[in-house]
Amino acid sequence: MQSRRSFLKWSALVGGASALGGGGLLLSRYPTGGAPAGVAGAGAAAAAGTRIVRTANTPECLHCALLAHVEDGRLVKVTGDPDFNILACARGISRIRQLYSPHRLKYPMRRAGRRGEDRWERITWEEALDTIAERYQRILEEDGNQAFLAFGGTGNWSSLSTGVRGLYSAFWNRFGGNTPIISQLCCASVSSGFNAIFGGGRSEFRDEWVHSRFFLAWGNNPAVSNQGYMKNLFQAREEHGARLITIDPRLSETAALSDRWIQIRPGTDAAYALGMVKVLLDEGLFDEEYVRRFTNAPFLVRLGERGCDLQAESRGWPAGGETLPVDLRDLRLLTDGGSGPGSFVVWDEIGGRPVAPDTPGIRPALRGDYTIGGVRYQPVFEWMRANAARYTPEVVHRITGAPADSVAPVTREYAAVRPAAIIQNMAGAQRTDHGTLTVIGHLYLASLTGNIGMLGGGVNDNGGYLRQGGNINYPVPVQRNEPIAGIPATKLGEYLVERKPHPIRAIHVAGTGVLTQYPNTRKIIAGLDNIDLMVVQDIFMTTTARYADFVLPVTTLFETRNLLAGVRSRYIQLMQQAIEPLFESRSDRWILTELARRLGFGDDFDKPDDELLRHV
């Protein structure tokens, strides 16, 4: 265990490093030239003749605000914006290296050898766009929209490029659609878990960490992945004495800073969470009134024809996972025939009868067994309690490898103070089988202790969440296209090789790396042999780009005007253009607009930046 003094020493070190990073990186650190005269060191004010342009970091992370220092049309330094709520991270500050990298794509190229051989010929933009549009049109006429796959990512994430529902989505919608990728590799577990428990929505409160009294970092390493917000956690520890416990298979940087580290086997988090739920219920550590008022725990559930007495024999404990002892298909919520929240039914302990949950003057029962109309019902709470009862300390130890005597102390600490924050940040749970169960376990814990909706409490799921987020629509009329069968994200290679559910003839990639982000790389490469045409627009010759037929160079965040409205941040930020595009690079918007014009729907996209930004 680390002492508080050593923890604060480390936090000062991290804070100092972040502050230094926020001061900026000088051009002299890069092989593209020395720092011009007058450019001072980190944190200094802008020199005379230096123009400072505000922009933001586009990768899907913290979206830190950046200040671009420009002299004579050349970017000389990048600093963090001191008026923004977080410190700029190393990734944001180092984007100057991306801008002036000697490895940048400089002009359009066409494959001149076998796919993946990395032999290219330089061509003009006109030839590249004309050829791509002509072949897209031919494939569309021969096999329809289902023959196309489109991958958009966060490499240039923003509203006028590859953001969710931004320009890229609008282009393919207007094109008539394409074969969709089913689910996500980034945050599907988080999304499905929150949808199952909350019916949608997210909880993001990194700005509120200063109010938290307890932190449970679960399968996540915020000391590295949330550096800009760690100052809030340090402040909570300093001002409130907030404790930090980390549950992680690895002794991460965050675990090393924690008051306690619980090591578990990968993929067994849900079992540990249910073990904690059992302790909460057995020891009465949950907020009973909160659970009655704000959860569906009192709702009556019809027990199925199998009885569902929750005492069925275990199906076994497979390595790295758990099974539920109850078939969820046997559970039916009792309603009065309606479909709204008030149509569910609870048992009123005062009146001794079934009533709607919003009936005034009632006390919904959490426990009991009730027969209504000859059918047996129990509150959801009873089902949850019986299910969690299976996760004794010994069972949790057998599944997770964590000490059996660790579960109760961790649970008691978590329940003892509020607000308490679970930081899972879509990390470990997203990258294991059945990660949704882990997310649901976290939400059970937060709901039972009344931390949902509390300032500084809850489950920090996927980094941040602006309600509007990346879903600010690009100003193009959305058309309703015919549904097309999709490809599961985890089985991309298999489906390309076996041409399921139908042959794919064209792939377009923007802002992501298919061969580095999707599993089973060799099978994906084999599947590319079945593709007629692959187009990649990117800043670098990535692994994915090497297998393309056409490679198109795009601008960096400093070379174009844009709007950042990402789902990992609460903020909408205007990104001003700092310098003119280098080489023959063009913005994502320009490329797609030119393709749209050649495909017959260019009028929807050929609009001035100011008009688009005003709309958004």
What is this structure, in a nutshell?
Helices cover 30% and strands 16% of the residues.
Outline the structure in words.
The protein has 616 residues and is of the alpha/beta class. It folds into 3 domains: 4-99, no CATH class; 109-186 and 470-555 and 584-606, Rossmann fold (3-Layer(aba) Sandwich); 189-297 and 300-333 and 366-460, 3-Layer(aba) Sandwich (Dimethylsulfoxide Reductase, domain 2), CATH 3.40.228.10. It is built from 20 helices and 25 strands. A 6-stranded mixed β-sheet has the order 6-5-23-22-21-7, with helices on one face. A 5-stranded parallel β-sheet has the order 11-10-9-18-19.
Estimate the global geometry from the Cα principal axes.
Answer: globular
CATH superfamily of the largest domain: Dimethylsulfoxide Reductase, domain 2
**Structural class of the helix and strand makeup?**
alpha/beta
Q: Give the helix tally.
A: 20
State the end-to-end distance.
50 Å
Strand content: 15-25%
CATH class of the largest domain: Alpha Beta
Q: What share of residues is helical?
A: 25-40%
Number of domains: 3
Mean pLDDT: 80
Question: Which blocks of ≥5 consecutive residues have pLDDT under 50?
Answer: 1-44, 305-331, 463-471
CATH fold topology of the largest domain: Dimethylsulfoxide Reductase, domain 2
Q: Give Rg in angstroms.
A: 27 Å
Described by strand count, sense and barrel closure, the largest sheet is:
6 strands, mixed
